[in-house]
Here is the input.
Amino acid sequence: AEMFGQLTSGLETAWNKLKGEEVLTKENILEPMKDIRRALLEADVSLPVVRRFVQSVSDQAVGTGLIRGVKPDQQLVKIVRDELVQLMGGEVSELVFAKSKPTVILLAGLQGVGKTTVSAKLALYLKKQGKSCMLIAGDVYRPAAIDQLVILGEQVGVPVYAAGNAIKPAEIAKQGLQEAKKKNVDVVIMDTAGRLQIDKTLMDELKDVKRVLNPTEVLLVVDAMTGQEAAALVTTFNVEIGITGAILTKLDGDSRGGAALSVKEVSGKPIKLVGRGERMEDLEPFYPDRMAGRVLG
Ligand code: GDP
Here is the structure.
């Protein structure tokens, strides 16, 4: 199923109930607002987010009054669209680059979310913007993660610093950063170890790596398929290590959209990029307005 498919049709139910109305009123939006609430919850948007969203849309709808030439159902669509854009952060949240070379981007996330894939995708993405990149292989726990990154690096034509898995990630980070400075690259991207769940060792190691690298961007890679859990994860990682944003992967899968809609509001951190496929080219900025457009179908 297409992502948001169910959400889109759920919202259509809401608009349809306003057909034939002259103006939006406190009474005639009650049923449509219930439909919107239900549709968002079914799309796995987190409950506090849904509550606030519905309240804000209701307030705006009642205050709209009669607009010549615009039917009430279209008015409500417009309010929901604008509110969705705001919910997802409004503007595109661009990657930040350091004033002096190299910009360091640290990637974190649980195992299997697509972190290693994203590392190489991001290197290719930046290379296309004319930036020279270097990857650091820091996932010392997952068997073959280092080899996988070396292969992907070759595929996208970006050098990979690998030092095996017998030394600590913080030491790999230190050596990799030295190498990057020697090579005078614009951007260094470090892949790190993921675990099946958050544990203290993972967090402590990440803190060590962060201290060594002093990164400009710390991006948490989260799987869109985890729904509103993604937002909780972003919050936890932000509290524990301090992050600058998230990368949402597997948007091409049949996730219901809850992650895309919840992350910013729940965690305060923006989604900066999205992965929507297994190919190296499948990484793009997260556009709140386009995403809202997709929600509305
Ligand atoms: P890691 O454990 O976080 O490093 O995960 P990997 O980078 O090895 O990715 C795990 C699996 O997810 C691999 O089979 C990837 O090809 C796949 N994957 C990663 N990103 C995406 C994506 O955006 N869409 C799809 N369909 N698959 C992805």
